[in-house]
Specification:
3-stranded antiparallel β-sheet, DNA-binding, WH-like_DNA-bd_sf, Transcription factor E2F7, RNA polymerase II cis-regulatory region sequence-specific DNA binding, transcription
Length: 877
DNA sequence: CACTCCCGCCAATTA
DNA sequence: TAATTGGCGGGAGTG
């Protein structure tokens, strides 16, 4: 009896009920699995108990006081518990006896045992790394705190960091939702992208020149003209911030955590010393560098590092330098992000240093660029932060909202970064510097790429041209966000390109597309226009969903930048049509996400439609689902699937979904999308067959783009099956696709200028409007109408309308289109919002054409602001 | 003594 | 106004 009581009593401390429950549960579990504890997967809901979990539970069960002892025990027991599970209950409790335990245990509670790292491990042990997508695990702060026997404050520390990596998301007050590591890969990818933009080369030199870097950073800030930055900031902020003013959150542990992780991801060596990290982080945050601030920062970093260590993402190491040895952390998490969600960590990264030469190049490069980057970085962060502020508000809604917010946040960051980057690039460009490239070269990228030359290339490129030439480079280029290369890619004419905004397709999904394309495309030539039209239609359809998701997923826009990927892809294609793009592409994608849009300084905004991966992939999908109605669950999975499928995709069945999506799309939400954003998130789908022709393209140099593809935001995919389908094909490059591939179109358009690229995105919706109009704009593009995206689109649209049936396979698509337009005839009315929102790009301004196309009548031009307004009006948000 | 980093006050935010 | 979040830094434990 005594024992019995004890057990109960113990828990009681702070937690009244819960503890008890736990204990009970524990008991239960063990019983259940007398045999083998294994995991109890079935445990449906709320309590996913696993062997480990049991342990934890046990531990927690004890009252705080007890806990200490427990901890000690823990060390030993874990195994036992897991294995036997069983009886231990009683035994444990017994052990617990006050007297006995206390004695030796009391002492124990050393500081270590209370460490945040250990606490975090316990916390993590309670939840599965890869929870079933179906079930949502909610975390109650109070409960966890009580169970783990710590004050809430500590739990916040843990949760905030986990939240920064999207392992959890805040659902409501005191409530968090456990997501597990499914999306970790994507999150890291994004962070990496964002990190490259922001920190870029800095990390490269890290070791040697930490100080220098630091200094540089500051200089840069000073040096750089703020004016440029400002715009960016403003830009971004409005969206995000509008809602909330950031401020305090800037320093938030969450943000610090993300930045910290970014440093690792960007670092070649994967080792970051605390002081450097602190310096960098302080910088961003603010100016003053008080010693005290530094100290505080370091303290926080320790907090973060402890959690990350528990996650197995980093480990503590020491770096010895001239001055002595410094505490540092080494990234031991995944280095390459397949794009897929789950990541495994695996390789520990060794640092493979670049060849000296390269290094040198990089370093130099850095120097030049750095300043700019800094700015960028700076601004971006701010914006991000601001966005974040919003997030907290949350609410009541469970799941989705929160995540969305997060996603947004991320996306915003990315976007910002992209924007910044663009600016920088431009600046650089102006200055004659090559900087843009620098990024590209990032070591990491090289890895991804198949290319042989990766790094080296980059540097080189800078020197001369960005462009095309680099075979290998391509991939690298792709990776790089900004790069001019893209521009070049298109024709080789740098000129044109440079400013144009591109669409980015960040996600891996692209790959798939490409691969398919090539094959098909290559062989095939251009499809007929009609096809194009159809395709385009499809594309549109596809897009919408994406948009929808986006919208749903985040408020702000994101970012995305235009995608450079495409260009890269194109290039590849051009260069080597035969090659399987896929390889290359993929990487690019990532990077591409960064892509920027236009350079035009002023207008960063291109509007790319981008979605962010993050959201999409992971959270977004689900969210979308929720919102939409359709199937929430699987979104993610679907996405994946869809991606995988690639070309195939979309079967007719999807239609419905599309439609729905489309509708949703309409909503203004899109607006959020920042102008800048690229499409990053979209995925292109190509049908295998489709339009091969596109590739060939021809006329333009870049044929590739044309590939018929559908761009779909990943998220969208998830929710929707995609669209795409098969048919798309985009005809030729330019044309139809244009929409999609911004790049392709871009070329053409570029010339014209405007960067329109973004347009594509608009996809379907857009289409309508255009229909009639069609062409006016196109002209530019020579080769095919495509270019003009707009025209093309228009065409496609029109075609669709007309032909839609043609589209063949995709009736669905058509449907969608129509629907949206509801009044098919005049899409405008309806569309406008959408279109604009997505597509608009401020930057694009220049090119009326392109935009117009998308805009059709509407709004294209509307300034970003306008868009927003519109959106707001329409959209619920 | 230098690192780490626990602890918890208390302000900012939210409910 | 009460509760929740979470910045912050004093200062203690560790090696």
């Amino acid at each position: 009896e005594n024992i019995f009581e004890r057990s109960r009593m113990a828990p009681k401390t702070p937690i009244k009920n819960e503890p008890i429950d736990l204990s009970k549960q524990k008991g239960c579990t063990p019983e259940r699995n007398p045999i083998t504890p294994v995991k109890i997967i079935d445990r449906p809901q709320p309590d996913p108990w696993t062997p480990t979990a049991n342990l934890k539970m046990l531990v927690s069960a004890a009252s705080p006081d007890m806990r200490d002892r427990e901890k000690k025990k823990e060390l030993f027991r874990p195994i036992e518990n897991s294995e036997q599970s069983d009886t231990p209950d009683s035994s444990q409790y017994d052990l617990v006896d006050d007297s006995t335990i206390d004695e030796f245990e009391k002492q124990r509670p050393s500081r270590k045992q209370k460490s945040l790292g250990l606490l975090c491990q316990k916390f993590l042990a309670r939840y599965p790394n890869y929870p079933l997508s179906t079930e949502k695990t909610t975390i109650s702060l109070d409960e966890v705190a009580s169970i783990l026997g710590v004050e809430r404050r500590r739990i916040y520390d843990i949760v905030n960091v986990l939240e920064s990596l999207q392992l959890v998301s805040r659902v409501a007050k005191n409530q968090y939702c456990w997501h597990g590591r499914h999306n970790l890969g994507q999150t890291l990818k994004r962070l990496q992208e964002a990190g490259e933009l922001q920190y870029g080369e800095l990390m490269t030199f890290q070791h040697k020149e930490q100080d220098l870097e630091y200094k540089f950073g500051e200089r840069k800030k000073e040096t750089v003209p703020e004016s440029q930055d400002r715009p960016l900031l403003d830009f971004s902020e409005p969206d995000c911030t509008s809602a909330s003013a950031n401020s305090r959150k800037d320093k938030s542990l969450r943000i610090m955590s993300q930045k910290f992780v970014m440093l690792f991801l960007v670092s070649k060596t994967k080792i970051v010393t605390l002081d450097i990290a602190a310096k960098i982080l302080i910088e961003e945050t603010q100016d003053t560098v008080d010693h005290s601030k530094f100290k505080t920062k370091v303290r926080r970093l320790y907090d973060i590092a402890n959690v990350l260590t528990s996650l197995g993402l980093i480990k503590k190491v020491h770096v010895t330098e001239e001055r002595g040895r410094k505490p540092a952390f080494k990234w031991i998490g995944p280095v390459e992000f397949s794009g897929k969600t789950d990541e495994l960590r695996g390789h520990s990264p060794t640092s493979d240093p670049l060849p000296a030469t390269q290094r040198g190049a990089c370093a130099r490069y850095q120097i030049c660029v750095t300043g700019k980057q800094r700015f960028t970085r700076h601004s971006s962060f701010n914006s991000a932060q601001s966005c974040e502020g919003t997030r907290r508000k949350v609410s009541s809604e469970p799941n989705s909202p929160h995540q969305e917010k997060q996603d947004e946040y991320c996306s915003k960051m990315i976007n910002l970064a992209a924007v910044c980057r663009q600016q920088i690039e431009e600046d650089t460009r102006n200055s004659s510097i090559n900087s843009p490239f620098s990024r590209l070269p990032v070591p990491g990228d090289s890895d991804f790429c198949v290319n042989p030359l990766p790094q080296a290339v980059l540097p080189v490129v800078q020197a001369e041209m960005p462009s095309l030439s680099l075979p290998v480079g391509i991939s690298s280029q792709a990776s790089h966000p900004s790069t001019p290369a893209a521009s070049k890619t298109e024709n080789g004419k740098p000129t044109l390109v440079p400013n144009q905004p591109f669409l980015c397709f960040p996600s891996s999904s692209l790959f798939m597309l490409c691969g398919g394309l090539q094959e098909n495309n290559l062989s095939k030539t251009l499809p007929t226009t009609g096809d194009k039209g159809n395709r385009s239609a499809e594309a549109h359809a596809a897009i919408p969903p994406a948009l929808c998701q986006k919208r749903s997923s985040y408020k702000c826009t994101s970012p995305a930048s235009p995608a450079e990927d495409e260009p890269a892809a194109k290039k590849q294609i051009m260069e080597q049509s035969d090659l399987p793009l896929s390889l290359v592409v993929p990487k690019k994608l990532f990077e591409s996400s960064k892509a920027e849009s236009t350079q035009g300084g002023g207008c960063p905004s291109t509007v790319p439609v981008e979605t962010y991966h993050l959201d999409l992939a992971s959270s977004a999908a689900p969210e979308a689902a929720n919102k939409e109605s359709t199937k929430p669950l699987d979104c993610q999975e679907q996405e994946k699937q869809s991606q995988n499928k690639d070309s195939d995709e979309p079967p007719p069945g999807n239609e419905h979904s599309f439609k729905e999506n489309a509708n949703q799309l309409f909503q203004p939400q899109y607006l959020y999308v920042q102008p800048t954003a690229g499409l990053s998130s979209f995925n292109l789908l190509f049908s295998a067959n489709q339009a091969p022709g596109a590739i060939s393209l021809a006329s333009n140099q870049l044929p590739s783009l044309s590939v018929p593809c559908v761009m779909v935001p990943s998220a969208a995919l998830a929710s929707v099956p995609l669209v795409c389908s098969p048919s798309f094909a985009s005809p030729l490059s330019p044309v139809s696709d244009g929409s999609f591939s911004a790049a392709a179109s871009m070329n053409f358009s570029m010339s014209s200028l405007a960067s329109t690229s973004p347009v594509f995105i608009s996809t379907t919706t857009l289409v309508t409007p255009k229909a009639s109009p069609t062409p006016s704009m196109d002209p530019q593009q020579p080769a095919q109408p495509a270019l003009h995206l707009s025209p093309v689109l228009a065409r496609s649209c029109s075609a669709v309308k007309l032909d839609s049936p043609v589209c063949v396979g995709h009736p669905v698509t058509l449907l969608k289109l129509q629907q949206p337009s509801s009044a098919p005839l005049t899409p405008k009315s309806i569309r406008p919002a959408h279109h604009e929102a997505f597509f608009k790009t401020p930057g694009s301004l220049g090119d009326p054409v392109a935009w117009k196309k998308s805009e059709g009548n509407q709004t294209r031009n509307a300034s970003s602001v306008q868009r927003r307004l519109e959106i707001s009006g329409t959209s619920p948000d």
